[in-house]
Amino acid sequence: MKRFKPTMVITIIILVILFLNAEAQVTNGLHFTRGGKNFWYGADTSVTGAPAPGFESLTNVPIDHPNVACNSCHGPTDANGIAYSTSNPYPGPGCVDCHPLPNYTPLSENQCLGCHSRQKAEATTLGGTGYPDVHRNASTPLKCWDCHVNSTENFNDMHGDGTIYKSQLEPGAIKADCQNSGCHTQLPGSHSSYDPHGGALHCSACHTRTVIACYNCHFESQVLHGIKRAKQQIHDYVILVNRAKDGKIGTATFQSLSYQGNTWVAFAPYSAHTITKNNARVCTDCHVNYGGSVAAIQQYNSTGHIQFATWNSNDSTLSWLHGVVPLPADYQRSFKMDFITFNGDPSSPPTASKNWSFVEGDWDGHQLFFATPLTKVQMAKIGFDTTLTAIADKPTGMLPATFGLQQNYPNPFNPATTISFLLPRSMSVSLVIYDIHGKKVQTLLDNQNLTPGNHSYNFYSEGLASGIYLYSLITDDFTQTRKMFLMK
After folding, report:
1. 164 and 158 in contact (C-beta within 8 Å)?
2. I want to staple 281 with a disulfide (CB 3.0 to 4.6 A). Which of 130, 206, 211, 460 is the partner?
3. CA distance 103 to 123
4. Are 350 and 342 in contact (CB under 8 A)?
C-alpha cells in the first residue's frame, strides 16, 4: 500500500479548503443567489432585506409567478447554445448559464448581454446604432470580465467575494470602478492638479454621455402572458444623485411601471457603458448660475416642479427632459412623470405602438435605494432656487388664483405626512382620508370655514396598515382626490 507523504496530505487539504472556499464564494454571489431582483420587487422586507416594500405591495403578484419570474436571470439559451426547456424554463443556477461546458471556455459577451440587456442596448440600439464607449471602442476592446475580474480573493464581481449581498448596488457588491483594478489610479491632466469639486463628483457625473430606461413597463402583459412590454427606450439624459457607495454625486436612472391603474417608480444609481473621454461635461452643463441652460433646473425655478416625462395625448407620443436632471431634495413632491398604460392586446408582440393612454401624473409608490437626492446646499451650488424646495418655504404673499390639492409630502410616508391645498377665496372645506376601497379612515376637516391662501394639515397613520390611501378636498365649488402610500 502506497503511503502519502505529509507534504502531499497538506497540499490536498489546502486544495480542498480552497475548493470549498471558492464554491462558497460562487454560491454566495449574486449570479447564483439571484437575490437582487426580489430586493427591489418583493413586498416582504423580512425576506428581501430591503428597507421598504417593492412593487409587489401594489400588485400582490409574487416574484415566482410563472409569467413574472424576475428572479430567473439568464438569456434564452445556456452557454452551450441549448434553449432552456419550456417545461422548466427557469432552472439553475448553474455554471452552464454563463460558461460553455465542459471546458468553461471560450466565454462570450453575448451570454452576459442576454441578461444585462441595458448594456446591450447602449452598444447596439440607442441612438440608432448605439452609443460609443471609450472602453468598448478601444483599439483592444475591453470585455465585461476585464473590469469585473475574478483574479483575487477580494475582487470578484463575477462570482462574488463570499458575502451574500442583497443587490449589486449594495456597497461592496461590485468592486469595479474607474480608480480600481489598476486602471485610473492617477487622474490625468487637470484632475490631478485642480478639482473645483474637491472630489465630490464621481467620474460618471461628467463622463457618462447618457443613461437608459425602458419607460413605463405594462405589467399586465408580463403577468398574463410573460411578455415584457414598455412604451419605449429613453436616453440622452442623466439623473444625478448622491451615491451610497462612496458618497459622491453620480449618475442614476429609474424603472417605471403601471398595473391595474396603480403606478410605481424605482430610482437607483446606474453605471452606464457610454463613457466619453474627450467630450466630458463642462461647468455650464450643470450650472445655470454659471450661464448654463439646464432645462430641469430652469423648470424647477419657474414652476417649483421638474416635469421629467410628459405624455402627449394629441399624438400619443412621449417627451422627456434631456441633458442633466439633478434629483432635488424634495423630489417626492417636485419630480413629476406621466404614467401610461397599454390599451392593446396584452398577448400581442411588443412592437412600437401608439396604443397607450394616460393614467396619472404622480406615482402611487416609489423607491430610492443606495442613493439620496441632492441636498439644498448642493442644489444652490448649481443654481436651484431653494426657496421653493420645501412646502413651508413657499412664498405666501400672493393669493392663489385657483383651487389646488397638492401631492402629500413625503410620499410614501411613515408615520406622518403633510397635505396642502390652495384656496382662492374664503369657503367651507372638508378634507377626508379613505382607504383604497373607499371606506372613510379619518376626517381632518369637516365643513370648516377657511380663509384664502395655502393651507397645510398633517395626517398621522397610527393603527393603519401599509397600502394606498386616498385623500379628498371637498368644497361647494371644487372636489379633488389624490393617492398616497403608507409604507411601514
Report:
1. no
2. 206
3. 29
4. no
Burial of residue 212, with CB atoms counted within 10 A of its CB: 0-12 exposed, 13-18 middle, 19 or more buried:
buried
- 112-128 residue pLDDT tens: 888 888 999 999 988 77
Of 19, 61, 17, 67, nearest to 42 by C-alpha is: 61
pLDDT per residue as tens digits for the range 407-427: 888 888 888 888 988 888 888
Nearest to 445 by CA among 461, 437, 456: 456
Q: How many CA atoms lie within 13 A of 7 on its CB side?
A: 0
Between 170 and 338, the higher pLDDT residue = 338
Please say if the pLDDT value at position 289 is more than 80: yes
SS3 (DSSP) at 38:
helix
pLDDT at 440 over 70: yes
Distance from C-alpha of 263 to C-alpha of 57, rounded to nearest angstrom:
11
Cell of 188: 490625468
Q: Are 310 and 321 spatial neighbours (Cβ–Cβ below 8 Å)? A: no
Instruction: Grade residue 92 by pLDDT with cuts at 50, 70 and 90.
Output: confident
Domain boundaries, the chain: 197-389, 398-486
Q: Which long-range contacts (CB under 8 A, 24 or more apart) does 141-150 make?
A: 143/107, 143/109, 144/109, 144/112, 145/107, 147/176, 147/181, 147/183, 148/174, 148/176, 149/176, 149/181
* Per-residue pLDDT tens over the stretch 305-334: 999 999 999 999 999 999 999 999 889 889
Strands 335-337 and 306-312: parallel
Is the bond leading into 93 cis (omega within 30 degrees of zero)?
yes
Which contacts (CB < 8 Å, 24+ apart) does range 230-235 have? 230/350, 231/318, 231/340, 231/342, 231/356, 232/318, 232/352, 233/121, 233/125, 233/126, 234/309, 234/318, 234/320, 235/126, 235/127, 235/131, 235/210, 235/211
Strands 213-218, 249-259: pairing kind: parallel
Does domain 398-486 bear CATH number 2.60.40.1930? yes
Contact 59, 190 (CB under 8 A): no
Helix (H) or strand (E) holding 243: strand 237-243
* Beta-carbon contacts of residue 416 (< 8 Å; ≥ 6 apart): 458, 459, 460, 461
DSSP per-residue letters across 126-154: TTTT----TTTTSSSPPPHHHHS--SBTT
Buried b or exposed e, range 31-52, using 16+ CB within 10 angstroms: bbbbbbbbbbbbbebeebbbeb
- Report helix, strand or coil for 269: strand
**DSSP H stretches of helix in 42-181:** 45-48, 56-59, 109-113, 117-124, 144-147
d(CA 424, CA 475): 12
Instruction: Say how far apart CA 277 and CA 119 lie, in whole Å.
Output: 18
Q: Is the pLDDT of residue 4 over 60?
A: no
Confidence of residue 392 (pLDDT cuts 50, 70, 90): very low
